[in-house]
Design goal:
408 residues, alpha/beta, Rossmann fold, Argininosuccinate synthetase, chain A, domain 2, five-stranded parallel beta sheet, five-stranded antiparallel beta sheet
Length: 408
């Protein structure tokens, strides 16, 4: 008979669910619990998290500021790929999970824990993302997923359990919460409850980081984003760290109503779900990165990247960040970024983000070749031979079809 783990590292937010999980691990599993809370820029005060963990008798509490690592080592590499899932989603929740998992495993090794635990439900993608990362980083780690084990399968039962064990419950958690929120420096994600009917427009109070485009300023905001080797390095000529830069883009995008998305997506586990996403800074960053690639990437490399991107995005969405195929794709993408350096000027206005200029010391744009005026570098007569060679197979196909009596 399998023994219960002795010591477990819990991914702990301090909210109702993970607070109950903490007590459940102590009471039902008999585990010593170590809590780990990642500051990924979710914008919440994390002081109460320590207090709540201490109130439950936790001796080892980790609250780590991972904002710079998150943007530098996870968000930026993903944006080099221009990764977008199902044509729209910028993968804000997906890309946070491998970092949380990585740090969780590191802590487990540091404190001698034999298990890790997450609070993801058995219906969603996050359980897959967390556990694929855990096993990729430590193939022998034990994983505890309470939502797949316990009988606390309703909000009422969770609150009853919390009251029975003296667990603090926020006043807005008594009764039906209007929706569930996940947030980090890249985005906010809201789903469930009031948002479950995809035919109904999301109420304005759901949005937390962006003003309504209708309420955004009537005057456009212009900014310039500087890039080196595919990564954003500055705004309006001011160099910034990765997390500082994304924070500033969030402010600029949010104030101009940029980055809202109402998406009905296909979860990895097979069902469709509706999410309301806000990615103001990420939306600007993606547009800016596309802009600098337009002037620096060769056509063949650019088109190949666009072919590879959906696969890359799907790997991130499904939780395969630490897979060899994602790393292979990343190596190819990073190779393409070696000369993706320069700056992009953007216009932000009432929910729109438009490229209005781009420059690079490694520009492939030749005004001499594309000008409508007279030039000495391109002989237009050469195009005739190019077209004939390109059309040769089409002419041969049509000649054969006519001979065979196929005129359609």
């Amino acid at each position: 008979m399998a023994q219960h783990p002795k010591k477990v590292v819990l991914a702990y937010s301090g909210g109702l669910d993970t607070s109950i999980i903490l007590k459940w691990l102590q009471e039902e599993k008999g585990c010593e619990v170590v809590t780990f809370t990642a500051d990924l820029g979710q914008g919440e005060e994390l002081g109460p998290v320590r207090r709540k963990a201490e109130a439950c008798g936790v001796k080892e509490i980790f609250i780590d500021d991972l904002r710079e690592e998150f943007v530098r080592d996870f968000v930026f590499p993903m944006f080099r790929a221009n990764a977008v899932y199902e044509g729209l989603y910028l993968l804000g929740t997906s890309i946070a999970r491998p970092l949380i998992s990585k740090r969780q495993i590191e802590i487990a090794h540091q404190v001698g824990a034999d298990a890790v635990c997450h609070g993801a439900t058995g219906k969603g993608n996050d359980q897959v993302r967390f556990e694929l990362a855990y096993y990729a980083l430590d193939p022998d780690i034990k994983v505890i997923a309470p939502w797949r084990e316990w009988e606390l399968n309703s909000r009422t039962k969770l609150i009853e359990y919390a009251e029975k064990h003296g667990i603090e419950i926020a006043t807005d958690k008594r009764g039906e919460a209007p929706f569930s929120v996940d947030a980090n420096l890249l985005h906010t994600s809201s789903e469930g409850k009031a948002l479950e009917d995809p035919a109904q427009e999301a109420p304005e109070f759901v949005y937390q980081r962006t003003v309504s485009p209708e309420d955004a300023p009537d005057k456009a905001t212009y900014i310039e984003v500087g890039f080196e080797r595919g990564d954003a390095m500055s705004i309006n000529g001011v160099a910034m760290s990765p997390a500082t830069l994304l924070t500033r883009l969030n402010e600029l995008g949010g104030a101009n109503g940029i980055g809202r998305l109402d998406l009905l997506e296909n979860r990895f586990v097979g069902m469709k779900s509706r999410g309301i996403y806000e990615t103001p800074g990420g939306t600007i960053l993606l547009m800016a990165h596309r802009g600098i690639e337009q002037i620096t990437l060769d056509k063949g490399a650019a088109h190949l990247k666009d072919e590879l991107m959906p696969k890359y995005a799907e790997l991130v969405y499904n939780g395969y960040w630490y897979s060899p195929e994602r790393e292979m794709l990343q190596a190819a993408i990073d190779k393409s970024q070696e000369l993706v350096t320069g700056s992009v000027r953007l216009k932000l206005y009432k929910g729109n983000c438009d490229i209005v200029g781009r420059t690079s010391p490694y520009s492939l744009y030749s005004q001499e070749h594309v000008t409508f005026e007279e030039d000495d570098v391109y002989d237009q007569a050469d195009a005739g031979g190019f077209i004939k060679i390109s059309a040769l197979r089409l002419r041969l196909l049509k000649a054969r079809d006519l001979k065979a009596g196929r005129n359609s």
